Every structure is written in C-alpha cells, then in structure tokens.
C-alpha cells in the first residue's frame, strides 16, 4: 500500500507539476508587468506601511474605532481586519517547512537551491495575488453571516462548475486533517519530547486542549490569537537569526556568491539545458519554495475571505506580502544561518563537502558531521554552534510555535471547506461542530502516532488541490485586475 502511494506521489509531484506552478506565476507576472517588483513601494505602503500609518490615532479616532468594534460585535456578522486575516494566513504558511524544508533543500540540492527558492517566491507572489483577489471577487455570505471564500466559491460562481468546487473542498478537508493537523501536531509532540522529556500522551492532551481553546471561538478568536502570536514567534526567530548572521558576517559575501554560482551548475542528468532543468539545485529549490508559501494551492484565498472593509486588490497585495515574508525573509534567514555557520564549521552533509572547509578545524570534527545531519538537526546544530544550548532550544521552540500556528490556520481552511460541502450535500446541519471534533481528534492522533503514511497522502492531496485551482486561475485570468501604479503614488 505504502509503496503504491509512494509511486503515485512521485508521479503526481513530478517536474511537470513544479513547472505548472511556475508557469502560472510567470504568466501573471508578465500580465501584471512585474507588479511584485515594479510596484514594491506601492504594495508595501498598502500592506505593512498602512499599519504604521494607522498606529498613530487621536483620542477621538480611538473612541470612534471602539464604538465601531462594539457595533460590529453586537451584529450578527463576524468581522476581521485585513491585518488579522494576513496573520492567520501567515500562521498557515509559516510552519516547520521554514526550518526543516530549507535544511532538506540545502542537503539535497546544495547552496544553489536557495536561489531557486527565491525565484519560486518571486513568481509565486503573482499567483498568490491572482488567487486571493479572485477569492474576494466571488466570495459570499453564508447562512450564519460569515464569509464563504476560496477556490470552491470561485469555481462555483465564477466558472459555474459546482462539481469542481466540491472536489476541491473534499481534497482540502483531507489536507487539513493530514498536513494541517496531524503532521504539525506530531512536530510539536516530538519537540516537547526531545526538549522537555514530555510523553506523547501528555503532549497530545496539552496540544489538543490549547487548540480547542482557540478554535472553539471561531475565526474571531483565531485571528486575534494569530495577530500577536505569529508576529511574536516570527520576530523572535528573525532576531536571533540576524544575531547569528552578525556573528558570522565575514562569511555572508562568500556564501551569497556561492548561492549564485551553484544555482547554474548542471546536474547529473546531463549537460546543457536538459542538465540544468533537472539539476538538483533547481528541483529542490523550486519544490521547497512552493511547499513553503503555498502559492497556487488556493489556501491563501480561503484565509483572506473573512476580511472586512477591503478590496480584491488590497487583499491580493497582502497575499503577496505573505509569500515574500514566508520565503524571501524567513526561509532565507534559515538558509543563510546554515550556510554561514556550516562554512565556518567545515560542515559536510551526506558524505560530501557542501560548504568549503576553513583552516583551523580538526578533521575529526569534520568527519563527525558526515552523516545524520538533516532537517531540524542540521538547523539546530548551526544555531547551537553560535548560541550554545540556547540555540537548540530556540530552534525547537520555533518549530513548536510555527507548527501550532499552522494548526490554527489550517483549522479555519478545513472548517470553511467542510461547511461548503455540508451546505451543498446535507443542508449544513451541525457541520462546524462535527468538523471541530474531527479536527481535534486528528490533532490528538498526530501527537501519539507514526505518520509515515500520512505524510505521503497529505502531499498527494495537496497536489490534487492545486490542479483544479491552477486551472481556474487560467480560465479566469481575465478577471484578475492588478493595481494601476503608473501615476505617482501619494
């Protein structure tokens, strides 16, 4: 069974799938005139920049905002700000892949994989804009007053194809119960076992209870939680990553040159274009970029659906920022830490010298690093090398916090999809309550069970989500409107 699924996984996630993601992003990049680069100052001011502008308010404005909050709270509509939905989206995308995935890409593809991770993010920003703005354009209010938004709504209302929407929603529910809950909960459980000696059963009770305390409050409580939890955890990881890089600042120029140089090295498949296209650097860099920021899966559109007082263009720009922050910022920090510390520590991985050795390091130390370092272990080693024992705790804590945030974000995605299915197939009776119980059960199982098979199935389901979503983007490409920035931005 597992061998069959593994074979199917390799077929579905072949090179053609990665290039389908990239071709879609490249299409919207060209169509927008390179908006993600050309309009950098514009979308930055409209997203992160707007937070600074709104942060300074007069007493009268604060009172008016408080009155508005009370009015909304008393209404039958759940309201969430654009910033809160963006934090929820970041919670779902910033996960263990930012630590484990990057390290795995470096081990498999070498330093050149980082360059192609950047390319995947740059192109993926255009895809994220397109799918999120379309989601806003075709969203609608559900029976309980909440927004229903995402590829399933676009497929039903934009394409007039309900069956495609139902198929997407079904795959998304499976993904939420697998990759969104079980896999992430397992990461938290393993971290608590390694750092605190906590038994999996105890971790299961703790993680499930914390998840229940947040998700029972619905999107409002989830968004409030992520609006401070995600910036805090990401900020801590950012600060100490920069600290490590400052300590290894002499290696940064050499590492950056090495990233650019090895990005163009042909792989074993042969020379010329064929060798380049199938080189390990390209393959693993692009794949990890797609897995990390989720641009093209359609999930970003779901997470932005609850935002009030916004436009499709504004939410599309927030989605672009999320891809930028997740991959260009967080993943790059992880990669640079590993490369810079690895270079100064004569680190070799997988039996080969990935980074050049420096003088003054004993051969015995180099040999001790020949095997067993990959994923979180590799990242933890590099942080520990500079920060001591605290470095390992930092990586473990970041993994646990990122994974827990992902659990919260994917709950909202799965609940939206389950409600859509229930509304269309069985009148939506107690859909939210039933799904919440199912999701919490998946979290508990993820903490106490081995997940080899779940990993394979979840990756497979993610791809099955992507195909109908990317097809929808192509069919409705004419409906995507990018902001006009030819005039001077005030």
What features would you describe in this structure?
By secondary structure, the chain is mainly α. The protein has 23 helices and 2 strands. It has helices spanning about 1-10, 15-30, 35-40, 40-45, 50-55, 60-75, 80-95, 100-110, 110-135, 150-160, 160-195, 200-215, 220-245, 250-260, 270-275, 280-295, 300-305, 310-345, 365-370, 375-385, 390-425, 430-450, 450-475, and strands spanning about 140, 145-150. It has a two-stranded antiparallel ribbon. The chain is globular. The protein starts with a helix and ends in a 15-residue tail after the last helix. The relative contact order is 0.20.
The ordered H/E elements are HHHHHHHHHEEHHHHHHHHHHHHHH
* CATH homologous group name: Amino acid/polyamine transporter I
Overall tally of domains: 1
Judged by helices, strands and strand pairing, the structural class is: mainly alpha
Integer average pLDDT: 75
CATH hierarchy, class:
Mainly Alpha
Number of helices: 23
Q: Separation of termini?
A: 60 Å
Q: How big is the Rg?
A: 22 Å
Please supply descriptive tags for the structure shown above.
Amino acid/polyamine transporter I, mainly alpha, 490 residues, 75% helix, 23 helices
Write the layout of secondary structure elements.
Blueprint: H1 2-12, H2 15-31, H3 35-38, H4 40-46, H5 48-55, H6 59-74, H7 82-93, H8 100-109, H9 112-137, E1 140-141, E2 147-148, H10 151-158, H11 162-196, H12 200-215, H13 218-247, H14 252-262, H15 272-277, H16 280-293, H17 299-303, H18 312-344, H19 363-368, H20 375-387, H21 389-425, H22 431-448, H23 452-475
């Amino acid at each position: 069974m597992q061998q069959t699924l593994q074979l199917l996984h390799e077929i579905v996630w072949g090179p053609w799938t990665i290039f389908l993601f990239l071709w879609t992003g490249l299409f919207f990049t060209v169509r927008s005139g390179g908006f993600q680069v050309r309009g950098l100052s514009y979308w930055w001011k409209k997203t992160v920049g707007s937070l600074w502008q709104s942060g300074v308010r007069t007493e009268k404005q604060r009172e008016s905002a408080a009155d508005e909050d009370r009015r909304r709270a008393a209404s039958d509509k759940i309201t969430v700000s654009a910033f809160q939905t963006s934090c929820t989206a970041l919670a779902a995308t910033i996960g263990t892949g930012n630590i484990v995935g990057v390290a795995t890409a470096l081990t498999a593809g070498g330093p050149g994989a980082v360059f192609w991770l950047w390319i995947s993010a740059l192109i993926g920003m255009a895809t994220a804009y397109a799918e999120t703005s379309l989601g806003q354009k075709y969203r609608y209010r559900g029976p309980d007053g909440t927004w229903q938004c995402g590829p399933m709504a676009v497929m039903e209302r934009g394409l007039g194809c309900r069956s495609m929407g139902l198929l997407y929603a079904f795959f998304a529910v499976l993904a939420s119960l697998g990759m969104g809950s079980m896999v992430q909960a397992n990461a938290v459980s393993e971290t608590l076992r390694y750092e605190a000696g906590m038994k999996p059963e105890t971790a299961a009770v703790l993680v499930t209870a914390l998840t229940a305390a947040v998700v029972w409050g619905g999107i409002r409580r989830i968004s409030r939680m992520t609006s401070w939890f995600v910036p805090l955890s990401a900020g801590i990881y950012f600060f100490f990553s920069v600290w490590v890089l400052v300590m290894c600042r002499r290696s940064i120029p050499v590492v950056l040159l090495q990233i650019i140089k090895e990005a163009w090295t042909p792989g074993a498949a042969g020379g010329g274009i064929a060798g380049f296209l199938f080189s390990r650097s390209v393959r693993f860099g692009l794949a990890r970029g797609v897995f990390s920021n989720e641009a093209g899966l359609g999930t970003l559109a779901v997470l932005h659906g609850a935002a009030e007082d916004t436009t499709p263009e504004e939410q599309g720009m927030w989605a672009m920022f999320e891809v930028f922050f997740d991959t260009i910022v967080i993943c790059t920090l992880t990669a640079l830490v590993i490369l810079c510390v690895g270079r100064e520590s004569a680190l070799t991985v997988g039996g080969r010298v990935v980074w050049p050795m420096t003088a003054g390091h004993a051969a015995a130390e180099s040999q001790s690093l020949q095997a067993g370092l990959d994923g979180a272990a590799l990242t933890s080693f590099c942080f520990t090398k500079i920060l001591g024992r605290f470095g390992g705790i930092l990586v473990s804590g970041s993994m646990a916090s990122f994974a827990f945030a992902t659990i919260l974000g994917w709950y909202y995605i799965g609940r939206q999809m389950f409600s859509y299915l229930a509304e269309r197939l069985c009148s939506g009776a107690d859909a939210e309550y039933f799904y919440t119980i199912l999701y919490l059960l998946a979290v508990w199982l993820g903490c106490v069970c081995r997940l080899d098979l779940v990993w394979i199935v979840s990756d497979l389901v993610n791809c099955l989500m992507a195909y109908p979503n990317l097809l929808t983007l192509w069919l409705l490409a004419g409906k995507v409107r990018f902001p006009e920035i030819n005039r001077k931005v005030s």
